[in-house]
Amino acid sequence: MAISYSGLSAFHAVAEAQSFTGAARTRNVSQPTLSAQVRGLEDAYGVRLFDRAGRQVKLTPLGQSLFVITARLFAAEDEAQSLLAGSRTLQRGHLRIAADSATHVMSTLARMRERYPGLTFSLTIGNSSEVVDQIMDFAADVAITARANSDPRIHSIKLRSDDLIAFVSDQHELARHEHLPIEAFAGQDIVLRERGSITREVFENRLSVAGIKPANLLEVQSREAVREAVAFGFGIGVVFASEFRPEAGLKRIVITGAEFDVGEYVVCRAERQRLPLVRSFFETVQDL
User: Fold this and answer.
1) From the CB of residue 75, how many other CB atoms can be counted at a distance below 10 Å?
2) What is the CATH number of the domain that holds 18?
């Protein structure tokens, strides 16, 4: 049985919008038409792809698996259209960016907006592991991450190097220091990002290599939460130097006695690096 393209396309639109109404508006068709296309796909195979409760729709387990496939399918279709006709002049188009810090990407987006006013952008912030996953899942076109990657499916260039630094509340016992050896972290409370964060991974590795054991570790889910926890005296925070913003009540400290240099990389799926939008992003990053 040949699968219905219109049915797949309708399913993907609804799954992406999480709404029949929103998908119909995006595709510029009536909701009954869209509903009929999805129902036709379900009936043809005797399956249920959505659980419907009023205006709310939720993917069934089978629907979730199908959505992974259609995401790849329609990403490839968009790629082909872009390559053949769409954005070669970059007069229009939409670029999806994932980054482990807004600090590392905003200057590039600002430059691209100046050069190509017709482009639109969406930006997702996550830890280094999450942004690579978004590239692999076709949820983002390009990403900036501190995680070096040797996967042959990923095209990567090194953007810059950055150093990890510590910072404390100005009431902390270590606030009088400009520099601290890594040994000074022994027995101290530390505030770090969640697992998957390259900041945490590198810092914990350096402590382990040096045989340093902190007292307590407070795990939080964002850089903003790290800053707030440190400001309220929960311990020593660790961030990239480029991410630290001087403000009242916080003191920056350089860590010595170990290598805290970490690379930052621009990545995309290898087969997508020649797309005009993706290529332009890489070129703009390198220009800056």
Assistant:
1) 17
2) 1.10.10.10
Q: Please give the structure tokens belonging to residue 182.
A: 């890594």
pLDDT for the residue numbered 196: 82
CATH code assigned at 150? 3.40.190.10
Contacts of 257 (CB under 8 A, 6+ apart): 181, 182, 183, 210
Which of 31, 57, 82 is where one domain is finished?
82
**CA 204 vs CA 97, 199, 213: distances in Å:** 28, 9, 10
Polymer length of the chain: 288
Question: What is the per-residue pLDDT for 80?
Answer: 72
Does residue 103 contact residue 242 with C-beta atoms inside 8 Å?
yes
Is this model's pTM higher than 0.90 or not?
no
Q: Residue 185 belongs to a domain with what CATH number?
A: 3.40.190.290
| Cα separation values, 20 from 5, 47, 66, 132, Å | 18, 18, 17, 30
pLDDT for the residue 223: 83
- Residue 267 is part of which domain span? 86-159+263-287
Return the closest-CA partner of residue 256 out of 180, 161, 166, 176: 180
Q: Which of 158, 140, 123 is nearest to 285 (CA)?
A: 158
Distance CA 156, CA 160 (A): 12
Q: What is the mean pLDDT of each run of 10 residues along the chain (288 residues)?
A: 82 88 86 91 92 83 91 78 60 85 85 88 88 88 87 89 91 93 93 87 91 91 89 92 87 90 90 87 87
